[in-house]
Predict the structure.
Amino acid sequence: MERPSNRGSELWRQWQRTSTHRLHVKLLTDAATGQAYRAAEITSATEAVFNAGNFRRAGGCVAWVLPNGLDWLAIFLATQKANWAALPLDPGFDSHHGQELALQLGATHWWDGEALSPLRSAGHRWQDIAVVKVTSGSTGQAAAVPCQARHLLADYRHIRAGMGLRPRDKNLGLIPLGHSYGLGNLVLPLLVEGIPIISAGAYTIAQIGEWMERYHPTIFPSVPAVFKLLAETPGSQSLGTLRLAISAGAPLPAEVAQRFQQRFGRKIHNFYGASETGGICYDKTGNASLAGLSVGCPLPGVRVKLLAGRVQVRSAAVAKSHGQHLLPDCGEWNRKGELVLTGRLGRQANLAGRKVAPAEIESILRALPGVSDAWCGVGVRGGRDFLAAALETTKSIGELKKAAAVRLPTWKQPRVWLALPQFSRNARGKIDTRALAQKLGV
């Protein structure tokens, strides 16, 4: 077949415009080495990948596993130049498991960093799809979320307006670029407005402080676990010119936000979104994060309704028919018009004929002194449900039970307890719930 038109996708055209007016700006910097790349160098790397890939047919879908950096950005832009769908996978995968998942999700090709090879996929139709996000949703199984360029661009408009992003900002890009969070807060700002990224695929907490002082980023989108370590790790770390710390991917405990502010004099801003919808709510002041009571108000351009307690999102960024999506998340509005998440559909325990959502117990346990995070599961013994709780804390189980007894009636108190100094998390900042469930026996 003929090589597809070099007009490319709308994301490619956005990059062409940006690379022209931000010609001399260092748009991508490798935080570990200090190597910086301007627009012409990024485009040159993209052309090399495009030529090596030999994109010959329309409507393909390329999957890859790469850490943040120039190689990641080059294959991403090459897919957009070819008008193919990009399917970036979690950088934690090895090549074998990455290709297995790519096949499962319907990718037609695999990029190994040097060459493009075909996959024997089921043959999904990827025409007009710019990016395929990967989500585990409420099932725990990986699922594809095909997004057109217009969905991603609309999401960026909402984020930009809600967070007040501007071209003179700099992002410290440690979250994976291919996750929905990374696409909306790092990749699209770079492509559309040339907001530079200081990137790294791996890092230590000490390096974050060093990079803040060396590169002077103004925005740091990250996850609660990283903010927790920053607030607790001894040393003379400084946040330099940072003006915006954004937390997403998992609930941000109020205690973490409070410690962070006490140490650095800056608030953390909660950000709530989903792969299917893009950004949903944002805590503009940071006050809700300190109180630990909400994820903020809907972003400009995003409409949120509660249908039987479930969160429904309607916006131009929603990658679903009719621009709306009903999430498994449940919530309620507080008096300030902020969304308070109360749990997820399907997670309920029947305790002596009374229903209780584990998310309710998690919220109460997370607010206990000395607890930075909590997870609650439902087990079955002798045909009866019971609650099992894991807490991220240095306190003893005896101390935790005593504190919880003040806030929970006896029938809502977990039967099984586990105290850990730190939970295992994935790159999205989400708790490894399977590991906790196994340890708790649920």
